[in-house]
Amino acid sequence: MDADVVIAGAGPTGLMLACELRLAGVDVAVVERRADRTGEARAGGMHSRTLEVLDQRGVLDRFLALGELQSVGHFSGIWLDFDESESRHPLPLMITQSTIERLLEEWAGELGVRVRRSAEVTGLHQDESGVTVELGGDEPATLRARWLVGCDGGRSTVRKLAGIDFPGTPATMTALIGDVELPDLDEEYIWARRRPDGEFSVIGFEPGWYRVITSAYDRVADRDEPATFEQLRDSLTRLAGTDYGMRNPRWISRFGDAARQAARYRVGRALLAGDAAHIHFPAGGQGLNVGVQDAVNLGWKLASVVLGRAPERLLDTYHDERHPVAERVLHNTRAQSALTRPGPQTDALRDVFGSLIVFDDVNRHLCAMLTALDIRYPIDGDHALVGRRVPDADLKTSGGVGRIHELLRDARPVLLDLRGDAELAEAVRDWSDRVDLVEARSEDEHWPVPPGSEVAAPAALLIRPDGHVAWGADLDARPDIPALRQALTTWFGPPRRP
Ligand SMILES: Cc1cc2nc3c(=O)[nH]c(=O)nc-3n(C[C@H](O)[C@H](O)[C@H](O)COP(=O)(O)OP(=O)(O)OC[C@H]3O[C@@H](n4cnc5c(N)ncnc54)[C@H](O)[C@@H]3O)c2cc1C
């Protein structure tokens, strides 16, 4: 074998997955079609749950140092206020995709990930023991691995080679986007200014640089038609009546509102994650976030299977948990796309929607959806936190003070005992090679659960490496030890001594 896992694509999803697999000790090779990093700005930010997962791994400070936190967000251009009590990192971080990719690749390098550039996946053959991956590009080659994950973007070759359908809805509009200088602009920014035949925004991105976005509804551009500076300038002039002296394009691109999702996230030994598994209108800035969170859901599961600790069926939970998440993103971005269309009917709809969004519950509901803080995976169990991401509560341990997300640095599962219960230590002993037992105290009586809810601090929680709760016990009841052992077996494999 050349590697346990080959990842196609060194975008944000592929790089994050590579880091997750390396943290678990898996030998991973990333193959990337491009000779260099794209340098394309593309995504402009990361939401709360993505910041939390980077914090779980101890690398968030690198991103915070190069981005800027925003106090507001939007749903289809209508402002939202983020509730600062929902998370330790509640606000979106404005940071370009090129910077995110650079930081992820640096971290991957530190963990020993091999990234092979100018290497394009062109062929795939599966058998019982592994996959053979054909590479085109500068130096055609063949790689043999046990698993292949296609993180190769919306036009994924892996998805096509694996024969996975990509149903959905075609684009109904075309938007142009570019990072340019606008010397004649005398406003700080222009936000979603609507016109009878489209809308435009101008957002200050870095000192002297603006991101211009123009949307047109009278035609749908061919996917392969190049986006040019002249098109962006013409489009802005048509909508704004001026080009604000537009010059010096750093990056120009085009996007639409096509929304498609892979029918299956796994066929045999080939899996999909990120844009390879789902594409949608980039409204609300969710795409990169969903991809990074796909990677965090898949990484530890694939590692457990590769290392022989869990059966292959654990991988089916990746589809079961993440497919509905992206399905919901497609749904909310279709709604956002509908709310951007020109015309008096949409103007009226936006007014009504805007009058509803000021209600706290509506604002909180939409924020929790866009930030992915409200995700609850379909995991068996009675406790109110089962399936949810664990809140990052403060802890007191024998070693001092800390917090829950810090316990997930090594991407290992944690049984958190908040009551000092000898039964728990006994129950987890048979998994002690795979699961860390941590005894601690929580000073808070209640923990926040987005959107706008809370639960009583629990007596114990079994936390998966992705930060989601697999089992829990309340303070006022005895822990259900058979259910704990069942959860340990389901997620982390059979006990050492049956
Ligand atoms: C204009 C725009 C604005 C956006 N804004 C936001 C935002 O604010 N927030 C947000 O979260 N998302 C945003 N997105 C979406 C975001 O850019 C994508 O969701 C994100 O890039 C997906 O990451 P990925 O790693 O899954 O795929 P990609 O970033 O597409 O990476 C795929 C990689 O695979 C490589 N590749 C392709 N084919 C092969 C092959 N056969 N073999 C080997 N390598 C291959 C590619 O070269 C590429 O490097 C925006 C998108 C656009 C277009």
Topology, please?
Layout: E1 3-8, H1 12-23, E2 28-31, E3 45-46, H2 48-56, H3 60-64, E4 68-69, E5 72-75, E6 78-81, E7 93-94, H4 97-111, E8 114-116, E9 119-126, E10 131-137, E11 141-150, H5 157-161, E12 168-169, E13 174-181, E14 190-195, E15 198-206, E16 209-216, H6 229-240, E17 247-255, E18 259-261, E19 266-267, E20 270-272, E21 278-279, H7 287-306, H8 316-338, H9 344-357, H10 360-371, E22 394-397, E23 400-403, E24 414-417, H11 422-428, E25 436-439, E26 446-449, E27 453-456, E28 460-463, E29 469-473, H12 481-492
Helix pairs in contact: 1-4, 1-7, 7-8, 11-12
The structure holds flavin-adenine dinucleotide.
Tally of DSSP helical segments: 12
The level of helicity is 25-40%
Rounded to the nearest angstrom, the distance between the terminal CA atoms is: 32 Å
Stated plainly, the CATH topology of the largest domain is called: FAD/NAD(P)-binding domain
The overall pLDDT average reads: 95
Keywords: FAD, Flavoprotein
Organism: Embleya scabrispora
Domain FAD-binding: 2-332
GO molecular function: FAD binding; oxidoreductase activity, acting on paired donors, with incorporation or reduction of molecular oxygen, NAD(P)H as one donor, and incorporation of one atom of oxygen
What does this structure look like?
The structure is a single chain. The strands form 8 sheets. Strands 1, 2, 8, 9, 10, 11, 19 and 20 form an 8-stranded mixed sheet that branches. Strands 14-15-16-13-17 form a 5-stranded antiparallel sheet, with helices on one face. It folds into 3 domains: 3-168 and 260-371, FAD/NAD(P)-binding domain (3-Layer(bba) Sandwich); 173-255, Alpha-Beta Plaits, CATH 3.30.70.2450; 394-492, Glutaredoxin, CATH 3.40.30. The chain is built from 12 helices and 29 strands. Helix 11 (422-428) runs parallel beside helix 12. It is globular, with a radius of gyration of 23 Å. It is α+β, with helices and mostly antiparallel strands and 498 residues long. A hairpin with a 2-residue loop joins strand 19 (266-267) and strand 20 (270-272). The structure holds flavin-adenine dinucleotide. Flavin-adenine dinucleotide binds next to helix 1, strand 9, strand 17 and helix 7.
